[in-house]
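In the current project phase, we have settled on a layout for protein records. One protein thus recorded is set out beneath this paragraph:
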Amino acid sequence: MAIARVALPVSVDRLFDYWLPAGLDVRAGSVLRVRLGRRRLLGVALEVGQESEIAPERLAPIDEVVTQIPALPTDLCALARFVAEYYQQPLGQCFAQMLPPLMARRRAGKVAGHCKEAAGAEPGDAADATSVHALLNTEQQAARDAVLEATDRFAPWLVQGVTGSGKTEVYFAVAQRIIASGRQALLLVPEINLTPQLQQRIARGLPGARATVLHSALSDGERQEGWVAAARGEVDLVVGTRLAVFAPLPRLGLIVVDEEHDVSFKQQDGVRYHARDVAVYRARLRAVPILLGSATPALETYAAAVRGRYRALHLKRRAGTQSALPEVRLIPNRAADSREGLGAPLRAEIAERLRRREQSLIFINRRGFAPSLLCSACGWKAECARCAARLVVHRAESEIRCHHCGHARRIPAACPNCGNQDLVPLGFGTQRLERALAEAFPQASILRIDRDSTRRKDAFATMRRAILAGEVDILVGTQMLAKGHDFPQLTLVGVLGADNALYSADFRATERLFALLEQVAGRAGRGAAPGTVMVQTDFPDHPVYAALTGHDYDRLAKALLRERETLGLPPFSHLALLSAEAHKRAPVELFLHRAFEHGQAIVAARALRCEVYPPIAALLPRRAGLERAQLLVQSRRRAPLREFLPLWRTELERVGPRRVRWRIDVDPLSFA
């Protein structure tokens, strides 16, 4: 009897044996449909043999081989095993990350049409070998040539370039040669909203290249079509968000991770992998180069380049001959002449841009009208009943809403505590800022861009077209506008609320604040006219602002690395976070206390150089009605932690009560 060992998308870390009915062609990597109890699941065959530890009469048959999805290639199977082992996740769930949503069988011609539409060119057209190269400046050419000397082996590169330095053109120049040699390229971007802009640039920079996009905003059918086209080798380039790191590419020759520092590359639920790090491992498996691009690299990446593990390429000036980095000015945050949070110097600069028919971006990283609602009589604040958080005022929708669990209700007419009708919105969000700007500049066309205003499909694409057409005078937005967007008429960026990050307990807060500010500052002056950035702050002498005014990331990064090394924090140590939640606090505390004791026992028995810290409440101790706590494991070296975690996880699976939901997050980026 032929037996297939199958990985299924279940929470337990085990494999399942099934027998093969006659006539089924099953091999390692085949996608199968099988039964587990009353459920019918998709699984991936890992191996086919003749023996099983399960008695033959207890084995169930394989229902079918899913023929509309090609078998997963060897490198993806190896990648799934790596993700499962490194991030301590069930193997079947890791395989599930790699599969597209399964739709009904489609006509074969549909796939090629989808690829053609993505690239804006006919599939099969030959790539023009001179279309991009003549546009590169000296720095870009040097970067391209360095990478092209090592395209036949694993070579990780940090492409550190100031905003507007033309990193994307370097990616395309390298990808052009890779594609011309008959291989495929994978380009990962942090935001879904960047992919339409990239598709247009691909059509110009890589004419004839067959491309497809993969991200979660596509319909199930579109994702399956793109996935299958990649698997069959019918596309030259795949562009996508973090899930695209698992795209099957039989002729893979290049991986690019743009804005590699961005936290959205880390999946925060389910299988908690980091797409950048998975991409590096995949490049190693396939022996291909990988480019990690950023103006503000993650300190882990920056340190790897300093140590020589990654090769560094620097683009120190903007690509356009007429565009220079914007001037950064620090202005008072609480001046007496401020109106609705907008200081007089910033208002004057906005007015000047309106006179010159140039565009302004006013940035605040808080959506909604105001972060909280206060009773001026008794001090009552609107709080979420399900989370340890305040409700955010959304004036346009006449509601107060929790940004953690989504709970919303109407804005009360009076204080529920004392009956006072004088309820005061505290602080500023994008909606309040939009109203303030409309009052200050009634003649201006103002556009707010945040998660609330871009919920509809294609909403951001429509907004982007209006901006490029000059139909918008003032943009109001969150970090959605900080990444990769190129608006040539935008010459002023004003930043409000930047100081909030300086109060954070997260040790990564300063690094992230600089990255965010440098990225949003980089939107200014990308055309012919020079750019100006105005940051309202109470702390103009803070090191992060000193580095920002000089666009000197290296200065800040070196200082932060010295600090991290002294404190034994990443990248000079390695972390794993155990989080637990339940409807009541007692079982959470009991589970984590047992986890702490088991962890200490393993460390002592194995003489491992790991530190298991006692449990503490999460930064957000209650979310969506669940009580939350966590504990941290830390090691100066990776090897002891990798030995410790599977042993500890086995114990946790044994002692963990059903009413407590827990997870291990390796290399956590957040402690919320």
